[in-house]
Amino acid sequence: MAAATRFFVRGASPRLSLSSVCAxxxxxxxxxxxxxxxxxxxxxxxxxxxxxxxxYQPDPVPTQYGPTxxxxxxxxxxxxxxxxxxxxxxxxxxxEDVAFGGVFRCTVGLRDKYGKDRVFNTPLCEQGIVGFxxxxxxxxxxxxxxxxxxxxxxxxxxxxxxxxxxxxxxxGNLFDCGNLTxxxxxxxxxxxxxxHSQSPEAFFAHCPGLKVVIPRGPVQAKxxxxxxxxxxxxxxxxxxxxxxxxxxxxVPVDAxxxxxxxxxxxxxxxxxxxxxxxxxxxxxxxxxxxxHEAPVTGGFAAEISSTxxxxxxxxxxxxxxxxxxxxxxxxxxxxPFYIPDKWKCLEAIKKMINY
Amino acid sequence: xxxxVANRLCRIPSPSVAVRLDARPxxxxxxxxxxxxxxxxxxxxxxxxxxxxxxxRDQGLRLFRQMQTIRFMQQKVxxxxxxKLVRGSCHHYTGQEACxxxxxxxxxKTDHLITSYRVNGYSFTRGVSVREILTEMTxxxxxxxxxxxxxxxxxxxxxxxxxxxVGAQVSLGAGIALACQYQSSDQISVAVYGDGxxxxxxxxxxxxxxxxWKLPCVFVCENNRYGKGTSVERASACxxxxxxxxxxxxxxxxxxxxxxxxxxxxxxxxxxxxxKGPIILELQTYRFCGHFVNETSSYRSQAxxxxxxxxxxxxxxxxxxxxxxxxxxxxxxxxxxxxLEEVEEAAEFAVxxxxxxxxxxxxxxxxxxxxxxxxxxxxxxxxxSVDKR
Lengths: 355, 389
Prior knowledge:
The complex is a heterodimer of chains A (355) and B (389). Chain A has 355 residues and is α/β, with parallel strands linked by helices.
């Protein structure tokens, strides 16, 4: 079973909407929310779309990991990779165009600092990149492979699912490629269209032997990525590309890890659980809403939903709600209507509260 | 340097070339000339394309018009992209016009062609109008793919797009060739890919099948020296892409000379049509623009780009025709003006056409009759999906 999945809650102000929903009765809260945000009247925009469909809310400054520095998501990834290359002499980073810094600037400066034998370009061959990465990992080096966009990961699907995931199992623990971490930009970005917007986590979550990790911000990204790299299992680390520049936080400069396979409570409440992992929160609230961009059928929300209803069936006050992408390829011009934004989540919450 | 073959051969320019003639009488212009072209390098072949190409005035003006239309269209797209009226991944063809136009001059309308995401040039040469191309880029309902594809996905009869996943289109192209062979249609398939895709595994799978079954497929490698940000020397152990097919014969041609591309493609087409099987055609070309619109191209120097721009295929053809008196400066100016007008008018349409209606969001996912319901957002939201053009 896939572990350590933290779904980023897309919302204008998660604290505002959560506390409002959890605090009072549904009717007045709904009206208050509508009055607070005049722009919530849905309006079909046919011209330029500049803004993302949410505003990123940074985490408070972490104090337990040492001095911090202002970083956005791609800088926090660079920082994690920098820490890794400094502390682990076997670590290598490779992928398409990583040498000059990568198309999303995640590897800027690393080649100059650590040398061209540790940070190098591969030709355009995803299957080759991952197969090669598995070999590097099996032989004992720390391999950090970059797939340029998650949409391009499919030529490597066989290597990941049939080779990387099953190596330990089929060799009776004699061999493993736990030193392998695959990184890929993931998710919608506003104009990515069919092949620069996909969220393929469900395909890999279905495969025992892999860990799939998706951070929600820079502080989380650095800690989780360092955990993936040190984890003794092959990990796929999907980086929400829409956050590369949009998410800015104070991130610790030194290395630190955030444990995988553990949920994180962002906001306490009593009426609805949004995207919580595990059953405890649903026992308390009785209602669960899960949201992701990937198409709803067979998406990871289905797995969570099924597991939760098995464990807390009698605690449920309403059917578990999934607010996800449509069962279509990720569209070009229809993107604003496709993505499961805060308004659709709000609508689903209202239905659950009123059930 | 060139030989005058004949003067005053053809009677009248063909009606399809709409050129406003200047005051000079028709008979003043050279009607046909044979130009020397660069000798092609060969792999697995004894004879290759000829080292000269015959060009008539009509053909020359047509080739010029096509290349210049692509060029001006790219410039307009850049403007629209900067204004955020075009979104998505937009990959320009500036500098590579001779490849698309030269190939089209050599193949028939009913031959099949498929290419990668750098699709603007081929869309135009394969018959999509400037208006439909620009409108597809802005994502409106008048676009060639009804606004659903965007800048990378354009299609036309006998033109299979517009494919984002690098290398995937080559397997498709070979499949199309198999269909041609199976249906004894005497058509060929042209599968275009780049120097980056040349290292994708599925290409080699497909080379093997095409050679084994003697498929009528021309594999065209547009080698513009960079796979996005990585130069060919740093990506490929062997940069002789025309030799990478090993047991498949190959030709390397100058992709910056439209006549060289045309002759090489003609040769390749005849090779396939005669039942000899597939052939690889490497076109050495260069993109003057970044990998995508407004890219900063930090992986190559501005000096290199400027040096390559000396080799501009459009300037070359114009210069050849002017020097040999095949056309006048006014001819070219008139063509430029007409193209500018066409592009401006198309752009105006592209930004004013409405976007596809929301009803279209779930259409054409499956073939379905009657219509089916598509799940999405949450369990209470279901939309209709209809398979329609």
